[in-house]
Write a structure and sequence with these properties.
- This protein has four helices and four strands.
- A four-stranded mixed sheet has the order 2-1-3-4, with helices on both faces.
- It has two domains: 81 residues, 3-Layer(aba) Sandwich (Glutaredoxin); 30 residues.
- The longest helix is centred in the last third of the chain and has 33 residues.
- Helix 1 packs across helix 3.
- Strand 3 and strand 4 form a beta hairpin.
- The chain is of the alpha+beta class and 146 residues long.
- The radius of gyration is 30 Å and the shape is elongated.
- Helix content is 47%, strand content 12%.
């Protein structure tokens, strides 16, 4: 069964729960502030305390990383209910972590390239207008000598 960590003041959590109920999906709700020890363990594992956090078949799903909308979450839950995930061995978890680090490195490199292009395009000095009327010095009149 899916477990969902929520916060009573989280509007997104409430919307997700309504849609899960409408879809007929069963879940166990854990209110994070009332289960501080369990919630702290989730934060330790994920590195972030964000609700609604979902535990599904021993996997942790975070909003905006693993799902963006309630509809996306419902599709994902239905998929994994029909096609359960196998539990990863420690070696597979290490491989997964290694690949995640490589993917993050690739994304950071791509972001750096994009930022460099943006910086180059925004710090170019303005072109010099050579057709501009530049004031010419006024010749001084000479006074006749006596």
């Amino acid at each position: 069964m899916m477990k969902i960590y929520t916060n009573p003041t989280c509007h997104y959590c409430n919307r997700i729960k309504v849609q899960l109920n409408e879809a007929g999906l069963k879940y166990e709700e854990v209110i994070a502030s009332e289960n501080q020890e369990e919630w702290n363990e989730i934060i330790r594992i994920t590195g972030i305390g964000m609700t609604p956090t979902i535990i599904m078949q021993n996997e942790v799903w975070l909003p905006n990383r693993d799902f963006r909308t309630a509809e996306e979450l419902i599709e994902r839950v239905k998929h994994f209910e029909a096609n359960p995930m196998t539990t990863l061995t420690i070696e597979e978890k290490v491989d997964q972590l290694h690949n995640s680090v490589k993917n993050i490195s690739l994304l950071i490199n791509q972001m750096n390239q994009s930022l460099t292009k943006i910086l180059q395009n925004t710090t170019t000095p303005p072109p010099i207008n050579t057709t501009q009327n530049i004031p010419q010095p006024v010749p001084q009149q000479q006074t006749p000598q006596q």
